[in-house]
Amino acid sequence: MSLWSESLSLCLYDWGDNAAKRARCILAHLAMPVPRSWWEHSLGAGRVPDTFATLLSDLQRELSTALDLDEPLNLGLLVALAFIDDEKAESSLDCFGYMNSRHTPNEYFARARDAYSTPFRPLIPRQSGRLFHGKAAGHSTGFRPPCEGGSDAG
Fold first, then answer.
1. What pLDDT, on the 0 to 100 scale, is given for residue 124?
2. Measured between alpha carbons, how far is 75 from 3 in angstroms, rounded to an integer?
3. Using CA atoms, how far apart are residues 93 and 54, in angstroms rounded to an integer?
4. Are 49 and 5 in contact (CB under 8 A)?
5. Which of 16, 96, 129, 139 is the right S-S partner for 31, CB 3.0 to 4.6 Å?
6. Can you tell me the distance from the alpha carbon of 19 to that of 35, in angstroms, rounded to the nearest whole number?
7. Minimum mean pLDDT among 9-23, 47-61, 114-128, 138-152: which range?
8. Per-residue pLDDT for 3 more than 70?
9. What's the whole-number mean pLDDT along residues 127-151?
10. How many Å apart are CA 129 and CA 76, to the nearest integer?
11. Contact status, residue 143 vs residue 132, Cβ threshold 8 Å
12. How far apart are the C-alpha atoms of 131 and 44, rounded to whole Å?
């Protein structure tokens, strides 16, 4: 087990049934550098390993039930979370990928949507729609990048 997945597991265990705290834990972990390296590789290769797809799908389900969101949560938005901490923050509290981040879930998702429009990341919107094709139905049907208007067309 990687240190990242162990940290996520312990964090979720520590918060028990507190859905809001568990959601913040998930968001902070998805904004850390480890998932970013997964998705950079997956975007470049044009496919995602089954273990990453399964993990992301599980986290999507938990976040969907824990948060009161205006729109359905999709895997594309969760992938984009890995790309939201570009600048060096003055304080670790300002980092999205920090467990004690002061950011709200809505701020995480707003920043993730912005990651799709960043000119330095042209691969995210083009490639992300194809990442989960060929996975089990629960994975491929849930992935709809926000920049593509909910289409898997990529």
1. 55
2. 23
3. 30
4. no
5. 96
6. 22
7. 138-152
8. yes
9. 42
10. 8
11. yes
12. 10
Strand, helix or coil for residue 36: helix
| Domain definitions of the chain by residue range | 3-144
Phi/psi for 124 (5° steps) reads -60, -60
Residue type, 124: I
Confidence at 147, pLDDT banded by 50, 70, 90: very low
Nearest-angstrom CA–CA distance, 40 and 98: 20
Integer Cα distance of 11 and 21 in angstroms: 9
Length of the chain: 154
Contact between residue 47 and residue 33 where contact means Cβ atoms under 8 Å apart: no
Q: Record the tokens describing residue 11, joined without a space.
A: 């964090």
What pLDDT sits at residue 98? 79
Helix ranges restricted to H, 3-146: 3-15, 19-30, 33-45, 50-66, 75-80, 105-115, 123-128, 137-140
- How far is residue 28's CA from residue 144's CA, in Å, rounded to a whole number? 21
